[in-house]
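> call design_seq(struct)
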């Protein structure tokens, strides 16, 4: 399987190896999910194992001001052991780079969590920085299962692509376009026009942070025009009366004004959604929940199927999404019990972690496939804490901002071809065989933690004794013992899971009432809005008179977040990932004297970010759009907590994400700034 982790799209690949050298990566026609499809990122993965930028040996420096020097692995383990002697002042975190061989099964993040729990260290769940807030809103409502891509193709009559993009779900795109060919209507809701919107029948471009407001507006029309499914509401929901009382007080004209689309458009969309036989919403996975939307967008959007009965039937509900799984999916938690009560408290919240770091309560930080100096909100504040840490260990394929500027110990990681693993798609498990000998002195996460567990005398940590047995254990448990590693090998590395294609077919939901909760007692008890509400951004479109802008984020087909050194470690992907660029409304640019491809500085009270500009008529005024992952971009995003310390515990997902809100101003770059920017190309 491809190592790029574009969940829920994971593609099968064929790897051509000769004399332990990867010659090419192509699509695998026999893969039951991708059936031969592979994008440019997947093809470029052939360049990863032998990239000249790859870290091949353990490197150490006593001070971050020194140069790295090569050391033996024995010395590296001695240094890590010393850093874990006071485990309550040590923290571990797994990034995307640690999941290239086990996405969906989450073997390595859970193994790292298990290690932290047994030795008493802190563990930072990687979903906290990604899709956790979106999942929080869905869990409050109870609409947690996803409708499969196959059902979209065969049964959906209307598909709303809400804040999602085909660039992050290319396989889902194939099912969506098959549905369109069959006669389904495609509608997009986004903050800009893009390649996905061009494939749709109708497009609604709204202002950032107003997704919940639009969903509330749709609910207003649905209730006002009696488009609800009364029988479904009475039998399978709670809190309709409380929600209805809120909706009748909402002003649809105000909602339209805030979202940037017209009242008639909102009414038309509501009628289309309710009149279609089976309507499905494909909800964005990460970017839509960063900014002022927070969890309110997914909470409000997931209430639409509850009002209309678009649940539990083929082609309805919510479609494939990041972190979403179909009915009947089973999961395995190998993390075990914490050694110290409350030892993970700091890492439930990004903001709490930041506070603990800057209060010097953490002395050792272990990062596996992570580049937090890029991906963390308000990175300038984070960097203050990183500078003071006595020990930072980075385990990765390539050096990045975090390791270059702050690490003391940089360790070489294995690629997805140099270790055994298992990935999971919505209805299959895929064995990831080791087919290449580790290059240089690369070691896997399993290798490192196993050795450290011996040194720390954690006798219950590695109960499997080898990586293959661990992978087999996970396969057996996730498949309810219907599959094992040998069974997958007999079937070309794939095994079909016994999961459904229709979401919530039994109409039993993962809430305290086992119903869809339009009103949530859990939320009210933790001082959160118990019903879906509009959480409009503090800066409305009417407040742009001071020439400030809302910065929003998304994905493209050639970006990599921060792993693989932002894609720049892969030669064929280096050029499109060389320098950042933001998209800006052409009229806004003209008013500032900014031209296409000019270099500008976007800034706020947190910091500044130098970038080039691309002008477009497909983005609203007052809005800037950037693909996520550019080095330095998160210097201007806020790290405030969105959910309180106790409230984040009321759902099973890690949702202590920072807001990532970014309201900025723009100025044309000075000559020196422009020269520095251009010199990096």
């Amino acid at each position: 399987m491809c190592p790029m982790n574009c969940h829920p799209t994971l593609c099968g690949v064929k790897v051509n190896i000769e004399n332990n050298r990867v010659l090419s990566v192509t699509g695998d026609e026999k893969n039951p999910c991708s059936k031969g499809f592979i994008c440019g990122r997947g093809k470029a993965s052939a360049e990863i194992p032998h990239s000249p930028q790859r870290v091949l040996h353990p490197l150490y420096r006593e001070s971050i001001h020194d140069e790295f020097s090569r050391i033996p692995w024995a010395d590296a383990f001695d240094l890590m052991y010393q850093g874990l002697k006071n485990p309550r002042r040590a923290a571990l975190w797994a990034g995307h780079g640690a999941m290239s061989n086990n996405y969906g099964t989450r073997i390595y993040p859970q193994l790292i969590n298990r290690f932290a729990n047994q030795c008493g260290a802190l563990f930072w769940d990687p979903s906290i920085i990604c899709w956790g807030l979106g999942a929080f809103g869905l869990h409050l409502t109870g609409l947690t299962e996803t409708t499969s891509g196959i059902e979209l193709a065969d049964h959906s009559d209307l598909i709303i692509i809400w804040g999602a993009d085909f660039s992050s779900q290319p396989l889902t795109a194939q099912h969506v376009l098959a549905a369109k060919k069959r006669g389904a209507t495609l509608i997009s809701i986004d903050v800009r026009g893009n390649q996905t919107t061009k494939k749709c029948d109708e497009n609604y471009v709204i202002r950032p942070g107003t997704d919940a407001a639009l969903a509330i507006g749709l609910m207003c029309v649905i209730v006002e025009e009696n488009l609800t499914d009364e029988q479904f509401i009475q039998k399978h929901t709670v809190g309709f009366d409380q929600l209805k009382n809120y909706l009748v007080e909402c002003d649809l004209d105000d909602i339209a004004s805030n979202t940037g689309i017209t009242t008639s458009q909102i009414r038309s969309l509501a009628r289309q959604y309710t009149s279609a036989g089976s309507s499905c919403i494909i909800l964005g996975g990460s970017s839509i929940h960063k900014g002022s939307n927070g969890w309110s967008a997914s909470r409000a959007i997931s209430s639409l199927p509850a009002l209309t009965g678009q649940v539990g039937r083929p082609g309805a509900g919510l479609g494939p999404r990041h972190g979403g799984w179909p009915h009947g999916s089973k999961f395995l938690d190998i993390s075990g019990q914490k050694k110290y009560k409350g030892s993970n408290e700091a890492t439930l919240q990004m903001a709490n972690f930041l506070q603990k770091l800057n209060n010097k309560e953490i002395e050792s930080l272990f990062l596996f496939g992570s580049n937090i100096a890029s991906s963390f909100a308000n990175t300038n504040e984070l960097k203050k804490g990183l500078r003071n840490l006595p020990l930072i260990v980075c385990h990765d394929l390539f050096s990045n901002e975090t390791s270059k500027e702050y690490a003391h110990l940089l360790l070489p990681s294995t690629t997805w071809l140099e270790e055994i693993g298992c990935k999971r798609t919505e209805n299959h498990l895929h064995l990831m065989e080791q087919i290449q000998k580790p290059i240089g002195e690369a070691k896997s996460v399993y290798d490192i933690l196993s050795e450290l567990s011996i040194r720390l005398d954690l006798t219950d940590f590695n109960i499997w004794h080898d990586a293959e047995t661990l992978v087999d254990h996970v396969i057996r448990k996730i498949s309810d013992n219907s599959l094992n590693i040998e069974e997958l090998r007999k079937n070309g590395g794939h095994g079909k899971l016994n999961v459904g294609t229709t979401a919530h077919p039994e109409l039993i939901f993962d809430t305290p009432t086992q119903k869809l909760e339009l009103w949530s007692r859990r939320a009210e008890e933790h001082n959160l809005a118990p019903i879906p509400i509009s959480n409009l951004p503090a800066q409305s479109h009417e407040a742009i008179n001071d020439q400030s802008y809302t910065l929003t984020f998304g994905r493209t087909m050639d970006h990599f977040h921060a792993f693989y050194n932002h894609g720049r470690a892969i030669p064929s992907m280096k050029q499109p990932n060389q320098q950042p660029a933001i998209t800006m409304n052409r009229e806004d640019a003209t008013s500032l004297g900014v031209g296409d491809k000019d270099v500008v500085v976007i800034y706020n009270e947190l910091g500044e970010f130098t970038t080039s500009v691309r002008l477009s008529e497909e983005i609203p005024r007052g809005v800037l759009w950037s693909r996520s992952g550019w080095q330095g971009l998160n210097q201007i995003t806020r790290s405030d907590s969105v959910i309180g310390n106790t409230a984040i515990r009321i759902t099973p997902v890690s949702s202590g994400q920072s807001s990532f809100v970014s309201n900025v101003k723009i100025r044309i770059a000075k000559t020196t700034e422009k020269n520095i920017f251009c010199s990096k190309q």
